[in-house]
Amino acid sequence: MTGPHEQHNGDNEPGSADAVQVEWLKGEGTDADVVVSSRVRLARNLAGMPFVNVASLDERANVLETCKQRIMSSDPDRSILQRIVWVDLHTVDEIDRQLLVERHLASQQHANGSRTRGKPDLRTPRAVAVGLPDERVSIMVNEEDHLRMQVIRSGLAFDEAFSEVSRIDDLLEQDLEFAFSQRFGYLTACPTNVGTGARFSAMLHLPALTIAGEIDKVKRAVTDMSLALRGFFGEGSEAIGDFYQISNQTTLGMSEQKLMNELAKQILPQVIRYERAARAKLLRGGTIRVADQAHRALGIAKHARLLTTEEAMKLLSRIRMGVVMGLIDNLPMQAVHRLMLQIHPAHLQRMVGKSINQDERQDARASLARARLHDAVAVDPDILQPGSDGPPSNDSGSA
Prior knowledge:
Blueprint: E1 5-8, E2 35-44, H1 57-71, E3 84-88, H2 94-102, H3 108-112, E4 115-116, E5 119-120, E6 127-131, E7 137-141, E8 147-154, H4 158-173, E9 180-181, E10 185-186, E11 198-205, H5 207-211, H6 215-224, E12 227-230, E13 243-248, H7 256-284, H8 287-303, H9 309-324, E14 328-329, H10 333-342, H11 345-352, H12 358-372, E15 377-378
Parallel strand pairs: 1-3
Antiparallel strand pairs: 2-8, 2-11, 3-6, 4-5, 6-7, 7-8, 9-10, 11-13, 12-13, 14-15
Helix pairs in contact: 2-11, 8-9, 9-10
């Protein structure tokens, strides 16, 4: 992949399995001790074209080609990104499709193919365009809507993410006519997205609330505020390793700025305070107990010979907590985040260079964890001040 605008047909990777430059894995930014990443997504549809779920294959192919010509334009005045790669999902193999899902660049539904008569159809013309090298920008074509453009940033950074996705939206709208109603706003396949078509979501790490048995209170509060609480891979996924995504559910009747401010300036700060208070309470209740959880996880991960994905994510959650609370040293946050990505099936298979079965993946996963965590050091909990207020909250993410 050498040019500013690149075509991927399965012969090249859409991104390195090592994921060194992936934006949301950096572990940097405001409130990064709790907020792993912030994502803003806009849903758009082409005027005069049927929605994806009722379009024929020929109509979907027409939408795909129209969007591709515009997104991949190399005209300096129309280009949306300096470097961008285009991946036709209906032509690449399963590992490539799953790799994009694991990197949060495509949804599982998009990887499987849009539904035709209730069943996923791998023949569906669909694609994802990915901005390089940090992959913070991606655009799904022919997912539930014709276009779903998203920007993901490390830490709590909705302002930056919204600014960038709005710039791309404006550029595309100069040449593509989007379905729009003066009364309802942008028209989308799902009624909950009608209006702005905007979805703001944050991935949070909430291990202390889970350990304290208070995570159900957060879930109820989020539901009462008409927000969505989802798992590590968003819609339809379960929470693993104490990682949760919180997002708005409806967009009709509210501006993007109001949606963003409610989540970023009113709701998330409360959840962040609860998690930090729970961490401080754990430390006040006895440093040795919380250190045991972090150190036990590190010990298992450094010596296990077989690991499932779920077990590895649970261990990495406790290890991340240990890094944030100063109980594990010599292990950068970015290294923990990269491992959280690389232990998933498609990345493991990409790294070994072949398709491997479940037993072989458990072996490869444990081997990878041992190698990447080899230099991590458990810190003696006695050096932490008893009765402290817990880890400092800062803007660097390096607590």
